[in-house]
Amino acid sequence: MSANNSQLSMTTDYASSLGSPLPALERIAQAGFTHIHWCHQWNTDFVYTEPEIEQIKRWMKELNLLMCDLHASAGREKCWYSSEEYERQAGVLLVENRLRMTAELGGDVIIMHAPAAPLDEETAQIYWDALWRSIDALAPCSQKTGVRIAVENGSPDQWDTIRRVLERYPADYIGLCYDCGHGNLSEEGLTLAEKYASRLISVHLHDNDGAGDQHNLIYSGTINWDRLAKMIAGSTYVKPLSFELSIKNTGYTNEEALLAEAMRRGLDLDKKVASYRA
Predict the structure, then answer these.
(1) Measured torsion, CA atoms of residues 62, 65, 67, 70, in degrees rounded to the nearest 10
(2) How far is CA 109 from the centre of its chain?
C-alpha cells in the first residue's frame, strides 16, 4: 500500500507483454502499486490454462496485488469481429477465456478493441453482423462471471463503433474504456469521453505529444490533466487510477526508477481527482 493509502494500478506490460510476468509483478508491488492492469498477451491468440491462472493468482496473493482489470485480446487469427465465421467463433472462445480468467483473479472488467467499420457499405454490414453476433454470444459468460466488457477508444474514427455499441447494449454489460493517450491524438477525444462519462468503467492513463501513441509518463506531454481529472471525478469510474506505460519511449532504462516516478505522479493525479470529487 502506498504511503497515503491511495490505490493505484500499473500495467503488467510496461516493459514487455510476453514471457513470465513475475519480474514485472514484483517491481510493480515494490513500487507501491496496489493493483494491476493485466496486459500480457493483450494482442495474441494465447489461451490461459488453469495451471497458469492459478500460478498468477498465487503470485498476486504473495505480492499483495489486486486485479483492476484485464486487457483482453481481439486476437490475430482468433478474432471476435472476423468475417470468417470459424475465426469469429474462435475469437469468442478467446474472449470467454479472458472473462473467466479475470473473474478467477478477482477482476470485474475486460477491455476490448473494436475497429472502425469499413467505408464500403456492403463490407461494413458484414463487419457489424459479425460484431453483433459475437457480443450477443459473450453475454451469458459475462453474466455468469460478473465481468463486464469495456470497449476502448483507439483511432479517432473508432468512436462511431463505440457509440453504436454503447447505444445497443446496457451499462450492466458493456461500458467505455477511455485511453487518454489515444484520445489525445485528436482534438475531440476528451470531449467524447466527457459525453460518455456515465458509461466509463476503465481508464488507461499515459501521455504523449499528440503526434503518436507513446505511452509516456503522465505530465510529460500535452494532455490536459486537470480537465481529465474532472471528467474522471464526474464519471461512473470509481476504481483505482490505472496507468498504461511503456518504458521504451520514456527515456528511462531502469524499471524501478520508472515505476517510482510513475507512482509519484500517479499520487498527484489521484489527489486531483479526489479534490474534484469533493
Answers:
(1) -90
(2) 9
Q: What is the pLDDT of residues 26-44, one digit of tens each?
A: 999 999 999 999 999 999 9
Decide: residue 94, CB within 10 A, 0-12 exposed, 13-18 middle, 19+ buried: buried
Residue 69's nearest CA partner among 48, 41, 99, 93 is: 99
Length of the chain: 278
- Written as one letter, the residue type at 160 is D
- pLDDT tens by residue, 167-206: 999 999 999 999 999 999 998 999 999 999 999 999 999 9
Handedness of CA 137, 113, 205, 251 (dihedral sign): positive
Helix (H, G, I), strand (E, B) or coil at 19: coil
| Whole-prediction pTM | 0.96
The C-alpha cell at 177 is: 474504456
Quick one: three-class SS letters along 206-217? CECCCCCCCCEC
